[in-house]
Amino acid sequence: MRDACVISDYALFGAAAQMRYTEAVATLDADVLVAVPSPDRLDVLGPIYEYCRTRGYAPEGEAVRVGAWPVQFVPVFSELTREAVCAAETADFEGVPFRVVGAVHLAAIALSVGRAKDMARVLALLECGAVSAEAVRDLAQRHGLHEAWARFRSRFIDERD
Amino acid sequence: MNETERLLRRQAEWQRERRSLTWPEKIRQAERVRATLEAFRAQRRHAVAVQPQDRRPPLGVPHETQ
Fold first, then answer.
1. Is a pLDDT exceeding 80 seen at residue B1?
2. Following DSSP, what letter does each residue of A54-97 receive, concatenated?
């Protein structure tokens, strides 16, 4: 997809990326952050869906079925997610190189989204030692997430001590 | 060490083992969980669809209380 200039970069994020560090977690789909060459298009994901369709990957709701997984393409939606894609690591999935968002960015994105399951993701990454509280705090603060971090810290870290 | 502590220790050990699996192994585990989740969801949708509507009292009619 990159070679065809449909996307300029990508990285797996969400639960599937979290599992590189933590134990397996329940998830219904695989989330892929994509940077696209024309982010101002109204149908920003149109070319991706079209590319997939011509290769036999059918859309399924808001996702595209690839093998066993519905894959949800999410255009980068903030400076944080843009940075996460740029700084993504190349992981090996049974011999296939795969761009994956790193642990600190995963935690900061989860913090920015802020649902209960996202808070659980930050906690899981902290508890398994994949990230330090300081690293998440620094990245969060750099992206204007001071308050989100302070709320998370008082609710889940200070309370635990 | 009492039985509860032994249970918690075994559980912690089990969690460590699951965490140390390779990424592809964990993805496969998640695939199996996902299949179960989807089956539950389908079952729930089916249960909602076949629930008889006429059991609900008509609007304005007070519910029976016990």
1. no
2. HTT--EETTEEEETTEEEEEEE--SHHHHHHHHT-EEEEETTEE
* ipTM of the prediction: 0.86
Dist CA A117 CA A42 (whole Å)? 30
Distance CA A28, CA A124 (A): 18
pLDDT for A50-61, tens place per residue?
999 999 998 988
Question: Which residue in chain A has the smallest CA separation from B15?
Answer: A23
* Chain B interface includes A24 (CB < 8 A): yes
Query: In which element (H, E) is residue A33 found?
Result: strand A30-35
CB contact under 8 A, A28 and B37: yes
Angle at A89 (CA atoms; ends A85, A91), nearest 5 degrees: 125
- A vs B: CB pairs below 8 A: 42
